[in-house]
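Recap for those who missed Tuesday's class. We walked through two folding examples back to back. For each one, the amino acid string is listed first and its predicted structure tokens come directly after. Nothing is annotated here on purpose, so try labeling regions yourself before you check the end of the notes.
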Amino acid sequence: MFKNLKEKNIKSNEKVIEKSSEEKAVKNKITKEKMYMIMGAMWIAAVILGFINHRIEERAKSPEIVFTRTDGTVKEESDKIYVFYPKDNSITNEEIIVSKVKSKDEFLKATIFETLKKLEEGNFVPEIDKKDIVYYILDKKIYLDLPEKIFDNVTNAKSELLIIYSFVNSLTNAGGIDSVRILINNADLEKVKYANLLKDYTYKKDI
């Protein structure tokens, strides 16, 4: 009987020892998993903090832009026109700066009106309404229709030719125009005062 009790006690002790070993192994496993999780969290936190610190350092290196100054002035583009007009009983030319034109048609119109302006300023022609001057182009020839009154201030043949060649030289110098035909009040006239108008005029330096 005592022998049986002793064997039971021994078996019970063995079971307790086995159970304690298993519990210890489980506890060790749980402890290791917790340590790995803590170490992983610490590593992630270190990476995030390192990135934030790097961004702060980079911002500190570059100056903070409070505002950007911009140039408020608008740069206007321009074109150059060479205008011919009478001076000292001969013909001369001058470079005129005009606002940028968008087409060849606008460039020719500006050339005509700037030439007219120089003639008016020198009192070679009376004041002319711009709407009374029209033109059209055929190939490389321009038909320039002028009002008859443009020759009102003419006193001799030379002064009339100087007016005609002011327009002719200015227009043929503009590019793309080889000759000019002068019309008066939308009609071909042989002459107004002196010059023959039934001809095509081309560039001429000496009048």
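Example two. Treat it independently of the first, because the proteins are unrelated.
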Amino acid sequence: MGLTERMHDEKKEKAQQKYRDRKAKQAGNVRPDWKGFVTCELTVEDKKSLREGAMPYEDAWEGLLDVIPEGYKLSISWDDKNETFTASLTAGAGTGDNAGWCLTGRGASFDGAVCSLAYKHFTKLARNWAAGGSAAGVAAVDFG
């Protein structure tokens, strides 16, 4: 087994242990009430930064995988109507003020959707979605 594979296995085991620890702490927690989708539009400058590599795919993917044990659910799907991929991060119990909200990123490619979502979560909103939320039922499908 090479160094890269060992590093990957160690990171995977660490993430799995964090997940098990988080689940043990959340055993008494209930699912948070649904609050809606976070309104977080990407500006022209944001999109340019993404095209220039501000959020490399490998960093985006690893960053999103790392937040799953914190109580987030990552989903990726294809939107036939708009012909885009949508990556969604739904905040569950244990995610603080983000609990009950869903943040999305869209892209023409799988990688683009993942990078868009990670950029919003880590860079644009700095992991704090509170300022970007909208009430459920009000602009509830306002993707950026």
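Answers for example two:
Strands lie at 36-37, 72-79, 84-91, 101-107.
Confidence is low (pLDDT under 50) at residues 135-144.
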